[in-house]
Every structure is written in C-alpha cells, then in structure tokens.
Amino acid sequence: MVKFNARGLMPPVFTPLNDDLTVNYAAIPPYAKFLAQNGIKSVLVGGTTGEHMSLNVSERKKLIDKWVEDGKTHGLHIMVQVGGAPLADVLDLAKYCSKAGVDSLLTLPELYFKPQSVLELVSYVELVAKAASNLPVLYYHIPSMSKVEVNMPVFVKEASNKISNFKGIKFTSNDLSEAAQVLRVLKDDQEIFLGADTLLAPAALLGIKSAIGTTFNLFPTLAQDILDAVEKADVVQAKALQEKLSLAVEAHTPEGAWVPIMKAGMEIVTGIKVGPPVLPQKPISEEAKARIETRLRALKVLK
C-alpha cells in the first residue's frame, strides 16, 4: 500500500544556474536549508518553476539526486515532476525516481499528442504510475500551459479507480469551483495542491489546505500566516495577508514571464542567487529588477 503524507505548503524549487547557463549545484544546499529553516516541510523538484521541461534527462537526474541528498538532510519530502518530455524519457525518469530516494511523483500530461478525453489522460498517468509503482503519483493540471482541458473531478474519480498509487493533483487554475468539486471526490489519503498563489485564502476557506506556489520560495512565512489565519477563522486577517501576497506577486508581473521575474525576485527577497532562466527563456534587465525591488520596498515585504 503506497502512502502519501505531504500536506501544506510546497515550494516548487528553482533550478539555480550560473551566468554561463550551467546548473549551479552548489547553490542547492543553502537553498534547501533556507526553506527548512522557514518552516517548509516538502518541495517540488522539476515543476514549471524548476524549468525541467527545458533540461535534458541527465541534468534532470543530477538535480533529482542533489535535492534528495540535500533535502533529506533537512527532513524535506521530495516530490519530483517527471513530465514535459517524450514518453520514453518520462518513464525513464519515473523509474529512476522510484530507486533514487524520491518520496512522490507529479506528472504533466503528454504535451504534443495531447489527451483528448478523461480516459486518454487516465491511460497516460497510469503508464507513469506503473513505472514507479512504489511511489505516490499525482497529476499536474495546468491547462494554461498544457492546453489539456478535461474535467478534473471526473478524471480524479476515474484515475482513483484505475491507478492504485494515484494520490491526487496539483491544480493550477483559478477555477475554485472545479477545485472544490475535486476536493469532494478525493479519498482520505489523496490531496489537492492549489497552484494559484493569489487564491490561497479563498481556497483554504473551501477546505483546500495544501498548495504548490512559486512565491512560497520568496515568502514562506507570509503564505503560512495566510493558512493559519483561515484555520483560526480570522477572515479579516486572512484577507489582509492574502492582499499583501497578491500585491507582492503583482510587483513582479509587469516585468516579464513568470520564471524569469520570479528568479529575479528570489535574489531580491532572500539573497539566494538562482541565476538566469534556462534557454529559451531570457533574464530580465537590471532596470526591471530595480523596479521590482522598488515596488517590494513600498509594500514593506523586504527585510
């Protein structure tokens, strides 16, 4: 019986790069320590934030090994996203994770020959789950990027019936009505992780208490304070704190694409240098970084 016990906030970790675009593995130990010291109990390796879809398989395996090694030092649950590659590579990565000390898997759908129905998507996730039958496997729903738009409550029900180690989804959509429907069909040992940082408080009010969000790298305590306020039924405080986090996100968004702006923000807010994005994405300008810092200072979110 495969058990899945990760709950709460899970930052999708950045892949630190040197200026010459090689992976900066030396940045990972202090990064893992920073997250653990700020109350984080689990991380997602290889998500959108981690840019693994732009890396080759050997780099992805090295990063998995490094996060397992350094994350376990701090007691972190290591979830790895294996999708965003040809199916043969996805299955290779899943098998690798099953023996590498990883705690759970997340997978995107097939991104070129996209699943057109619930059953096609279940079939794809089942292939990944069979390649790592000893690990909990979750599905990564991000229709804005994947363009796979099947009904999630129906998918979760079908996947749960067919895949013994299927343990939930990462739900990166602003449709909280659909998210609430997913929550209703989940079993006790399954979880839904919200993927929308700006909806943490309203989702928590609906009972969605776990989330995977880029900003938890930058503002882990602020995000936890939002969940704590909802838990205490302090709606006024939850709203105020959510507004603070949402404005911090909006301080970045005018300056470019999500990963380049958030990599810049990580250094501004925490001092941890995660470098430029992986090609084909490009880093933002020094002027753009300065504007982000000015806005964050005005919001009083910088130490």
Describe this structure in words.
- Helix 2 (57-73) links the parallel strand 1 (42-45) and strand 2.
- The radius of gyration is 18 Å and the shape is globular.
- The chain has helices spanning 28-37, 57-73, 87-99, 118-131, 143-146, 152-162, 176-185, 200-205, 215-218, 220-231, 235-250, 258-270, 286-298; strands spanning 42-45, 77-81, 104-107, 137-141, 166-171, 191-194, 210-211.
- The protein is α/β, with parallel strands linked by helices.
- The chain has 13 helices and seven strands.
- It has a seven-stranded parallel beta sheet.
What oligomerization state is this entry in? Answer: single chain
Strand arrangement in the largest pleated sheet: 1-2-3-4-5-6-7
* Cα separation of the termini: 45 Å
Provide the succession of SSEs.
HEHEHEHEHHEHEHEHHHHH
Count of DSSP-assigned helices: 13
> Which whole number gives the mean pLDDT?
97
Give the biggest beta sheet. 7 strands, parallel
Bulk shape: globular
Flag low-confidence runs.
none
Total strand segments: 7
Helix content: 40-55%
Structural class: alpha/beta
Please state roughly what percent of the residues sit in beta strands, choosing from under 5%, 5-15%, 15-25%, 25-35%, 35-45% or over 45%: 5-15%
Radius of gyration: 18 Å
